[in-house]
Fold this protein.
Amino acid sequence: MKFFVRILPYLVCILFFIAYSTLSVVRHDHYQSFGFDLGINDQITWEYSKFKPPITTIDHIPFISKLDVHIETVYPLLSPLYWIWSDPRMLLILQAGFVCFSGLAVYFLAKRYRINIWIQFALLFSYLTFYGVQNALWFDVHSATFAAAFTAWFIYCLVTKKTKLTILFFVLAITGKENVAGTIFLISVVYYFIAKDKKGIYFSIASLLYLAITFGIYFPNFVEGGYRFEDPGGLFSNLNPLLMINTPEKLQVYWYTFLSYGFLSLLNPLYLIPVLGNLASYFILGASVTTAQGLFLQYRIVLAPLMSWATILIITKHKWLNKTYVAVYLVMCVLVVQYVLHLPLSYLAKQWFWGEPQAARNIDKLITYLPNDASVVSQNNITPHISERSNIFTLWPATKNFVNSSPCQKTSCNWFRWSGNPQYLIVDTSSDWDARHLLENIPDFVDGLKNLEQAKIIERYKVIGNAKLFKIMQQLN
């Protein structure tokens, strides 16, 4: 029995690793992943593996260095694995592995604090099923997801005084995504107040230095246009605390974040400082990034290690909470959130998730006719399947005005734009796709393609069902 208890946390992490890997790979295989961000991150990891600079052509600003957008060291570190298997699914599986096995940091931390064994497993379960974790692992690949795993291990190593490993995960976390250094700073400050350990001061100072260099020197002076995700007036141009609570979707973030851990962390506001600081980096400093304000995508994943640590500290402080019934309560809270939000793990039980669209099979066949070294422009959900090439561009919907010789017999026609000089265009006009995949509604998308054909910009090369491969006869002006 003792042996089983010892290996159980590892088995739990393995089980979730299999589940999340399956979710993300099946989603990708069914053409539900996107050029933003899986295609971009696959392209730059492939380039790193070839000892090339991380220049992405998929971004809406093509031929830009990924280091001009984000500081993300995880991709060059992972790139040697592309020598074994160069495929976007490698990134998807690695991401799931990093996050799932970082759950052990939460489990070991709870064990270190001598928390009830059932609460240890409940906290591991809470971490691995947190809504931010599920949404991040479901939706493509992001450096913030890796950074969250590094943050979990940083907290564990800091608390357990494993100095060398703490330094390692500190470096991995702050360079995993540029804004994570702010969260690490707050973790270090709170740790100092709790443990009175000078290492908290050292890591907080190092975090501030990194932030100063990154946002005070690097982005303003070495990146054209500065930091892409700051407010138009500057990073600190709108320090309005009301931005923390000014929309219903932000209030939902607080509700489901605290509910996921049974509201226990509210018993001591000190432990919530890293949580609130992390949210402030998006709600206030990054208020202009509208996609980062709610429950979904990858933006809430760093809250998982922060909320786990805060809950552990609360249970340690209030001995009456260190009982088996709290483990039951935490699991019930997790299940409520899972049910209400219908989070991605539930998709594994859905027939629609496993059914491969005929459109996906058609595109798979069509891609075999695309030369491996060809320059190509493609729609958003096809891009990550062909992104390991130097010249692959995103197909952007547009309109074009005509004075005469209008291909649509109107003065303004549905049209497209792309960058570079691609040789091929690959699309699929199946009803399985929507504006997320096409960046346009289907009728206007189809109409734009007809107009390009009518104007002899493109010529059909191969058609399989609704999947179409065109040769580009002349470049767009």
Observations:
- The chain is about 55% helix and 10% strand.
- The chain has a mean pLDDT of 96.
- The two ends are 71 Å apart (CA to CA).
